[in-house]
Specification:
2 domains; D-Maltodextrin-Binding Protein, domain 2; single chain; Fructose-1,6-Bisphosphatase, Chain A, domain 1; alpha+beta; seven-stranded mixed sheet; globular
Length: 305
């Protein structure tokens, strides 16, 4: 494959997002909501926005296929990944916390990412080796190291449950002073530009995650991708933002560092969790009559007898 001109392709992504904006904003606050087979909401703005994006990308880069949330597509070694309206629930309720997501992926790695918060007039754009800009101004992730003074955001609480991480949500809610629910691409964009110090967002699809995966790293942060087999159709999770905070937040997630022989627990396995009242000291046990795995704030032990 020919080498990518990411700066030129970023301009293409911006043009595609502008086309989507013209379809999406006139439908905001006045659009009917349908429920798809997977239980997620969709509106005509989602569909019209994706058609507009596909038209621009198809004309500018006819040799690069497009994979979108509403109309699917076949991924190749290089492809566009599109979510025309991320935050459809907010969009359908008249809230301004939604946006368009576009990423360019090559060899399974996002190379370019765009988060366009149409109602707020904030567009975050970046690519490998090119840094990140919000409305043309360079931005950087937070480098804060103390959780006690950090703003940490999270996705919807049910995303933790779908990802089999509900105890982790309870631990975060109990231990963090400024845990805030800035969900979807709104929270992602705030974290990219350092307004939010770190974020935990679970139960995602590839189009939800790809722009953030490249933007966070280019903005000087850390982005860890978690994968959960059989996670109700939403197999990805992201922990991202300030590198020191990401490391500490990972200690609360059971999927991070789970012993391999407990990924698919055998019949009769006992699972239970508890916390003690000290910052981010969440204990998780998975045990049987002959062994137990213990997870505690980033450390894992397995005891066998």
């Amino acid at each position: 494959m020919a080498k990518l001109d990411l700066a030129a392709l970023a301009r293409v992504a911006e043009a595609a997002s502008e086309a989507a904006r013209r379809e999406i904003l006139p439908r905001w606050k006045g659009v009917a909501v349908e429920i798809k087979k997977d239980g997620t909401p969709v509106t005509e703005a989602d569909r019209a926005g994706e058609r507009a994006i596909r038209a621009v990308l198809g004309e500018a880069t006819p040799d690069i296929p497009v994979v979108g949330e509403e109309y699917g597509g076949e991924a190749g070694g290089r492809f566009w990944l599109v979510d025309p309206v991320d935050g459809t629930i907010a969009f359908s309720r008249g809230l301004p916390l939604f946006g368009t997501l576009i990423a360019l992926v090559e060899d399974e790695t996002p190379q370019l990412g765009l988060i366009d918060l149409h109602a707020l007039g904030e567009r975050t754009l970046g690519w490998r080796g090119g840094g990140v800009r919000c409305n043309g101004e360079p931005v950087r992730c937070s480098q804060r190291s103390e959780l006690e003074s950090a703003i940490v955001s999270h996705g919807d609480a049910y995303g933790f449950e779908l990802f089999q991480e509900k105890p982790a949500y309870m631990a975060l809610a109990g231990d963090l002073r400024m845990l805030r629910g800035y969900t979807d691409c709104f929270g992602h964009a705030l974290t990219v530009r350092g307004g939010v110090d770190a974020m935990v967002d679970l139960s995602l699809n590839a189009w939800d995650a790809a722009p953030t995966q490249v933007l966070i790293e280019e903005a000087g942060g850390r982005c860890v991708t978690l994968r959960r087999e059989g996670a109700s159709g939403y197999p990805l999770g992201l922990v991202f933002g300030s590198p020191p905070l990401v490391e500490r937040l990972l200690g609360n997630l059971w999927v991070w560092g789970r012993p391999s022989n407990f990924k698919n627990p055998p019949p009769g396995l006992l699972l239970f969790n508890f916390r003690v009242p000290s910052p981010l000291r969440y204990f998780a046990f998975a045990g049987s009559t002959t062994s137990v795995a213990v997870r505690c704030a980033g450390c894992t032990w397995q005891l066998t007898w």
